[in-house]
Write a structure and sequence with these properties.
Elements (H helix, E strand, L loop, with lengths): L3 H6 L1 H10 L6 H37 L5 H42 L18 E6 L12 H7 L3 E2 H7 L6 E2 L2 H17 L2 H10 L10 E3 L4 E2 L1 H6 L10 E2 L6 E2 L4 H4 L7 E3 L5 E10 L18 E11 L4 H18 L4 E5 L11 E9 L4 E12 L1 H6 L2 E3 L5 E3 L1 E9 H11 L7 E2 L2 H7 L3 E2 L1
Parallel strand pairs: 4-9, 8-14
Antiparallel strand pairs: 1-11, 2-3, 5-7, 6-7, 9-10, 10-16, 11-12, 12-13, 13-16, 14-15, 17-18
């Protein structure tokens, strides 16, 4: 959420942001509603002041020793009637204010965050900018298979039985692919606990940041809808799963419940940055993707993710995002997977985002790059809603700046490993970095 004072002072900018982010909200209508809201508040304050004046008059009358009792009663009746009129007017205004304030708060939640100066202007993903491509695409002397074919042939993926049990877009993952998933989790957690590796990544990226490691978290996978709304992640609501009895939302990513970890708290600047890495199952209805990626495990209703969430001060938010992207790239290079870093355009980034990167990994079975990672810098957009603050050296309160990012969408990285490491005999070579965790070099 943006500050209304900032919106008023930057009306033209916000109209441009709304247009470029493809958000349906009328900024002028919001500002007009805000002014009306302020006027009603002023009238209510005046009526409360009038009521206090009337109460004082009545009190003075009771204490008056010079007026006759009949005069006091007559004067008291007059002020009591005036008080009733004020009370009635105040009640009417309060009801009017509640209606306007509800509409105002709803519109404020719809206002998108501003985007960074280096964010490309565009309406679709086709206008995203490739920042760099890293790694050589594998050259095969045989037609490469897609992951679902490899998975079926090797008994690693079963979507036929899962369709009978759960419906489409679910899968049984089995055998060595399960071991590879847990190898990835264990490896990532060990990397993000290693301050020497983090220091090395920071140095290579040319950043000036604390080498503090990332605290591992297993977060809840259900949350209250009002908290998800404060996170700015409730919409699109048709892509969320919600329990029918309790009304709890199933998370679409670990960051949904990592972000509120310090909700309604004021942190000490000396403890910043707070860096977390969370692992959880995620749930999405995949609304609007009918017929897309129906085979295999690329686009499922239930999948597992490792996510980063960072709380920093206002001066290091952009640098923390650069570190996150550097970590993502380090892990990809260790897996020896070819990828490209993409700076997302205004129309493809999220409403809360100031700047957003994707990493797209080469999938030879599909003969194209596919998104496997995201990195979103929100500034204080989420923390203002969550009321997560920090106190600086001078004792002043500020909203923390927040970053979240995908370390691995595990299903998608398994796909990338399978397709890039397939062999002519149908086996899959285990990336060297994972071999000590899996105790094997080949999946046959």
């Amino acid at each position: 959420m943006l500050d209304i004072g900032f919106i008023k002072a930057n009306r033209d900018l916000l109209i441009e942001v709304v247009r470029n982010k493809k958000v349906q909200i009328d900024i002028d209508a919001l500002l007009a509603l805000y002014e009306e809201r302020c006027q009603i508040l002023q009238q209510m304050e005046q009526l409360r002041a009038d009521k206090n004046t009337i109460d004082d008059h009545i009190k003075l009358l009771i204490e008056n020793k010079e007026m006759s009792e009949s005069s006091i009663m007559e004067e008291r009746s007059h002020w009591i009637n005036k008080g009733k009129e004020v009370k009635k007017s105040l009640g009417e205004l309060s009801s009017q204010f509640m209606n306007i304030d509800t509409e105002y708060q709803s519109l404020m939640y719809q206002v998108p965050n501003i985007y960074s100066a280096d964010t490309p202007i565009g309406l679709t993903e086709n206008e995203n900018v490739i920042v760099r491509q890293v790694g050589d695409k594998p050259a095969f002397d045989f037609p490469p298979l897609e992951h679902w074919q490899l998975g079926k042939n090797l008994g690693l993926i079963d979507t036929e039985k899962s369709a009978q049990v759960s419906g489409s877009r679910f899968a049984y993952i089995k055998g060595d692919l399960v071991l590879m998933q847990f190898a990835l989790i264990q490896w990532v957690m060990s990397v993000l606990q290693n301050q020497d590796i983090i220091a090395q990544i920071i140095d290579t990226a040319g950043l000036n940041l604390d080498t503090k490691n990332y605290t591992p978290v297993l977060p809840p996978v259900m949350m209250k809808p009002e908290v998800m709304k404060r996170m700015g992640r409730l919409d699109p609501i048709d892509d969320r799963y919600q329990t029918t009895i309790d009304g709890l939302m199933l998370v679409g990513s670990a960051e949904h419940t990592l972000g509120p970890l310090h909700m309604d708290e004021t942190l000490d600047y000396r403890n910043l940055p707070l860096r977390y890495v969370g692992y959880s199952t995620a749930f999405r209805r995949e609304a609007g993707t009918y017929g897309k990626d129906m085979k295999g495990i690329l686009r499922l209703h239930q999948f597992d993710k490792i996510e980063i969430e960072v709380f920093s001060d206002k001066d290091t938010g952009f640098a923390e995002q650069e570190l996150i992207v550097a970590i993502q790239e380090y892990l990809m290079q260790q897996l020896q997977l070819p990828y490209q870093v993409v700076l997302k355009c205004t129309g493809d980034m999220g409403t809360p985002d100031i700047r957003a990167y994707d990493i797209e990994t080469w999938l030879p079975g599909q003969n194209q790059y596919r998104e496997t990672h995201t990195s979103d810098y929100m500034g204080e957009f989420q923390s203002r809603r969550l009321q997560t603050k920090y106190k600086d050296k001078e004792g002043q309160n500020h909203f923390v700046h927040m970053n979240d990012a995908t370390v691995f969408a595990i299903g998608r990285i398994l796909i990338a490993i399978m397709e890039n490491n397939q062999q002519a005999d149908g086996s899959i070579r285990v990336p060297e970095i994972l071999q000590s965790y899996m105790h094997k070099t080949i999946i046959t």
